[in-house]
Amino acid sequence: MIIVRNDEEIDKLREAGRIVGLTHKYLQQFIKPGITTKELARLAKKFILSKGCTCSFEGLYGFPGEICISVNDEVVHGIPSHRKLKEGDVLKLDIGACYKGYHGDSAWTYIVGEGSEKNKKLLKETEEALMAGLGVIHDGCTTGDIGHAVSKVAHKYNLGVVKQLVGHGVGDKVHMEPDVPNYGKERKGPVLHTGNVIAVEPMLNLGTADIYMLDDDWTIKTMDGKPAAHYWTIKTDDGKNSAHFEHTVLVLDDGYEILTRRDVELDPEDIVK
Ligand code: MG
Ligand code: MG
């Protein structure tokens, strides 16, 4: 069952989403060569707690980090570590915040420093795919409509669409019904209605759509069969870069409302001089 949220729940989802958007904005000032992903995650948690929320992903299914930070060919679920960011890295921050029991979930991809034209193009095209997916949302649309719109953009740019990982319903749990795949057929899949809240999250690759992980859908191992240090992390099979853009949205009669908006204003004291 896809839950229709009441006004009280929507207010909490809106606040959780606002804090997620704000956390993205806050972290951008620290995205520079030399910072470790662990430090970024620490700053994220401190900020999220200061806004009266908790980190949705911390401990979720046992995840050992505050937010997910994936770099270059890592698709998702990267564990914050002592890895230092380098000029030109493709950095994915997937942030979840929980406010009074309700969650917001948004991933965004950034380039550390300048970056190559190829990577900048990947980011622009993946964001376009996200917006195309959101663009078909209204009361009565289907998850297939969304997946179709996302994959149409991906195919236009010849990007690999990760199929094993999907968007999802969001509410009093981070991951709820329905699955929202980044592929599909128009008019197929569960029907969405006004008051449903979902996360749409294309993960698009410069090369193959294939990703490398074990049968349990979470763990990966290196090619020599030994468990990798970052056993949560999912990588592209060919080592090419991947981008990930995600918003949590509320379905409306004639469209959608982005709950994890990015045009939110930071308090002056949250800006590091
Ligand atoms: Mg996410
Ligand atoms: Mg998500």
Report what the structure shows.
The structure is a single chain. The chain has 4 helices and 15 strands. The protein starts with 6 loop residues before the first helix and ends in a 15-residue tail after the last strand. The strands form 4 sheets. Strands 8-7-9-14-15 form a 5-stranded antiparallel beta sheet. Strands 1, 2, 4 and 5 form a 4-stranded antiparallel beta sheet that branches. Helix 1 packs across helix 2 (37-50) and helix 3 packs antiparallel against helix 4. It is 25% helix and 23% strand. It has 273 residues and is α+β, with helices and mostly antiparallel strands. The protein binds magnesium ion (2 copies). One magnesium ion binds next to strand 5.
Q: Outline the biggest β-sheet.
A: 5 strands, antiparallel
Percent range of helical residues: 25-40%
Kindly report how far apart the N and C termini lie.
48 Å
Mean pLDDT equals: 92
**SSE topology string:** HHEEEEEHHEEEEEEEEEE
Give the names of the bound compounds.
magnesium ion
Number of strands: 15
Tell me what portion of residues adopts beta-strand conformation.
15-25%
- Round the Cα radius of gyration to an integer and report it: 18 Å
Q: What spatial form do the alpha-carbon principal axes imply? A: globular
Structural class: alpha+beta
